[in-house]
């Protein structure tokens, strides 16, 4: 896996990351969602530097210009719920992408043990496409790995990009085993620790709840 950690350079991205972490600012759920979306936009721009482009002629009112434009083969796939604001950010830039949505949640067996349940699954054919798989939190890595197992039935993408906001080192190491070697991970920032409940520390808390409210 090719790992790109975006906060290793000092950019405006750091402000967006600090606001989603900040226990006071993150209470404003509209700002939280918008910051995740803004991070999705930054990730899109970085991914766009690696895509395949082809020459196309654009007509202006005064003439023509040959431009290099990205091929229209992107599929954006997000993991519900927390993936939705990140999906919006990616879609703001890859506006003609096809879209896939998959649900994954932690079904707790005990306070500290859980299994990943994948239930809703809607995806186009992935053969030969550029797959961008988005989930803001990469904690144990089990949600991303389970979703990818399911996606394999929908075809073989030409290339795979993973778009994440905060990861834990353990999760990064876990998913390396599941994805093809040339998969590119784009992640805003990485923390060292996971707690007993599988939450990233210091992380930000529960991204799904902060975006959409607590669930039962
Ligand atoms: O790397 P993992 O250990 O699998 O954890 C990460 C998952 O946890 C969060 O989802 P959650 O289960 O909280 O569901 P939600 O989006 O509905 O809140 C997050 O959006 C990831 O999908
Ligand atoms: O820290 C974490 C881990 C999983 N899901 C979250 O929303 N946050
Ligand atoms: Mg959650």
Automatic annotation (TrEMBL):
Q: Which Gene3D superfamilies match?
A: 3.40.50.2020
Protein origin, superkingdom = Bacteria
Write the Enzyme Commission number(s) for this entry: 2.4.2.9
| UniProt-recorded Gene Ontology molecular function terms | uracil phosphoribosyltransferase activity
Does Glycosyltransferase show up as a keyword for this record?
Answer: yes
- Residue ranges of domain Phosphoribosyltransferase in the record: 9-213
Q: Which UniProt keywords apply?
A: Glycosyltransferase, Transferase
Q: What PANTHER family does UniProt report for this protein, alphabetically?
A: BIFUNCTIONAL PROTEIN PYRR
| Name of this protein | Uracil phosphoribosyltransferase
Organism lineage: Bacteria, Pseudomonadati, Bacteroidota, Flavobacteriia, Flavobacteriales
């Amino acid at each position: 896996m090719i790992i790109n950690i975006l906060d290793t350079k000092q950019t405006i991205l750091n402000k967006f990351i600090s606001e989603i972490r900040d226990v006071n600012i993150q209470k404003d759920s509209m700002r939280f969602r918008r910051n995740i979306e803004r991070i999705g936009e930054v990730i899109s721009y970085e991914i766009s530097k690696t895509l395949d482009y082809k020459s196309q002629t654009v007509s202006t009112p005064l003439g023509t210009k040959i431009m290099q434009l990205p091929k229209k083969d992107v599929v954006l796939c997000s993991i519900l719920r927390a993936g939705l604001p990140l999906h919006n950010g990616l879609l703001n830039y890859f506006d003609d992408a096809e879209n896939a949505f998959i649900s994954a949640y932690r079904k707790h067996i005990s306070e500290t043990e859980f299994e990943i349940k994948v239930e809703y699954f809607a995806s186009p054919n992935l053969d030969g496409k550029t797959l961008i798989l988005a989930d803001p939190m990469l904690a144990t890595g089990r949600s991303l790995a389970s979703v990818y197992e399911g996606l394999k039935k929908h075809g073989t993408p030409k290339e795979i990009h993973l778009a994440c906001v905060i990861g834990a080192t353990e999760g990064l190491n876990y998913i390396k085993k599941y994805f093809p070697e040339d998969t590119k991970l784009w992640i805003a920032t990485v923390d060292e620790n996971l707690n007993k409940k599988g939450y990233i520390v210091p992380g930000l808390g529960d991204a799904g709840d902060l975006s959409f409210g607590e669930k039962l």
